[in-house]
Amino acid sequence: MSISVLKPGLFTTVQDLGRPGYQKTGLVVSGALDAVALRTANLLVGNPATAAGLECTLRGPVLRFEADTLLALSGADLAATIAGQPVPLGRPVAVRAGAVLAFGAPKLAGRAWLAVAGGVAVPLVLGSRATYLRAALGGLSGRALRAGDALPVGEWPALARRLFDTLKPAETAGWASARWLAASEAAAPLGMPLVVRALPGPEYAQFAPSSQQSFWQELFTVTTEADRMGCRLSGPALTRATTAELLSSAVTFGTVQVPPGGQPIVLLADCQTTGGYPRLAQVISADLGRLAQALPGTRLRFQPVSLAEAQALYLAQERRLRTLERAVHLKTLPV
Amino acid sequence: MADLPATWRLYLLGDAAVVLELGQAIAPATHRLLQALARLLDQQPLPGLREYVPAFTTLTVYYDPVALSGPGRPAPYEQVASYLQALWPAALAAAADYAPGPVVEIPVCYGGDFGPDLGLVASHAQLSAAEVIARHTQPEYLVYMVGFAPGFPYLGGLDARLATPRRAAPRSLVPAGAVGIAGLQTGVYSLPTPGGWQLIGRTPRRLFDAARAQPSLLQAGDRLRFVPISELEFQRLSRVH
């Protein structure tokens, strides 16, 4: 079973939940920028949460399924179609062999995730299938998709088979989507800034009070220097009240660091494991996925929360995923 | 509970990580304490700890707030903080008779195409190229931490005479294995990357290889020695590694 890549899209990579455990050796975690979105798509096709899918950026790929496929899309609406018909997000979609999934010109910039039953079965590298471009490891030969690639697909879990059968797609290149959908977090309304909640970082107190205030109150815009490592923001200059050099220490997904120029950088899934810039803030775990939609031009606002709130939000998010997992199982039970 | 040192400081890095900081000075004694604590975390992991990252004076512990949550349990952060404090007396004892990590030999072909900045480092130090090589291969360096890039070691122990400022304009591509000097630091590029260090040589050994079970050749706590080799040996070893 495989998927043929007819067009690769702007920047499409194989991602799973990353390869934790090696940060002490300088190896970044990588993985989907919105792990919750990828996990949601995986649950919708009966996969374990750890299965690998595709992360699509701005313009998605054009893919031909060489065998019957159960797929799900999550994240931003990147205008996916099969045979000219829009494919809904957040639902399992049963697709017959030969069907072509194409992404059009999205109305809004964003990133999306595609999960297929069985997962994208590229080899595991250090326990993960996530692509890490800088070291050219994981994913499909450590790189983004190219036209002509064939993506291997793993064995279907029994649940995927049952889901596919309940959807009964038409025989020839047909497709059918479930009439139910996974509730997803509402995207920021058109034109509204992306709000991400954060905790003060280790060096927060070293910043001038006026800079601390600006950080929470003003809007920042994502510059064109934005990739999977991080995004550089432009906004009010943030100044440290001290010039003392810092020793390199750990940084992670969601760390907001401020280089001497005063324009913050938000680190993302492919960020380095240690850094020497002051860490002004740390985006809470529950909002890391929102940062996946911080593409050039996106306006961002940071909102302070307490540690207790941050952990409660994270727990609630995990509960929602468990509820979804149970609900998907129930959908395949005979009525 | 044993007294905690005056430099002991615990702080948050968001809602899923705790940083233990022992002051702001790079010192072998601080390094040994953090390494001893890291080894204890390996031997007696608290369920819910994801991984840890040692740095010069910090040990950052990543944890899973879900695994550490439950009715009647203290906040996850409190549990990790108490755990680190509880391990402290054992870490102190272990650091006292700390067995240093292995000595890893890094063969280096100095100068020529492999070390285009050797002459510059020599003239900056007012030494001959041969004296620079002798002073660079003499110390036993300590790997304080591995970071910045996969397998990249932060080393302590450079002869202060060899300290040379970074290049004004970084090179757009430095090959993996390049050995360089930047200020009081010396190190080895583990991946091809842009870089501003003064390059004095290159090693055929691969500092990072995802095909190995332990992909990083060097771990925090290891010791390192540079061994000069000829270009012929470099070619031969390149085929082996």
Description:
The complex is a heterodimer of chains A (about 325) and B (about 240). By secondary structure, chain A is α+β, with helices and mostly antiparallel strands. Helices cover about 15% and strands about 25% of the residues of chain A. Chain A is built from four helices and 21 strands. Chain A has a seven-stranded mixed barrel with strand order 13-20-17-18-15-14-21. In chain A, strands 7-6-9-4-1-11 form a six-stranded antiparallel sheet, with no helix packed on it. In chain A, strands 2-3-10-5-8-12 form a six-stranded antiparallel sheet, with helices on one face. In chain A, a hairpin with a 7-residue loop joins strand 17 and strand 18. Chain A is elongated. Chain A starts with a strand and ends with a helix. With about 240 residues, chain B is of the alpha+beta class. Chain B folds into two domains: about 90 residues, Gyrase A, domain 2; about 140 residues, Cyclophilin-like (Cyclophilin, Beta Barrel), CATH 2.40.100. Chain B is built from five helices and 13 strands. In chain B, the strands form three sheets. A seven-stranded mixed sheet of chain B has the order 7-6-13-5-12-9-10. In chain B, strands 1-2-4-3 form a four-stranded antiparallel sheet, with helices on one face. In chain B, helix 1 crosses helix 2. The longest helix of chain B has 21 residues. Chains A and B meet through strand 16, strand 19, strand 20 and helix 4 of A and strand 2, strand 3 and strand 4 of B.
Essential attributes:
heterodimer; A: 335 residues; alpha+beta; Cyclophilin; 2 domains; seven-stranded mixed barrel; six-stranded antiparallel beta sheet; 4 helices; 21 strands; elongated; B: 241 residues; Gyrase A, domain 2; seven-stranded mixed beta sheet; four-stranded antiparallel beta sheet
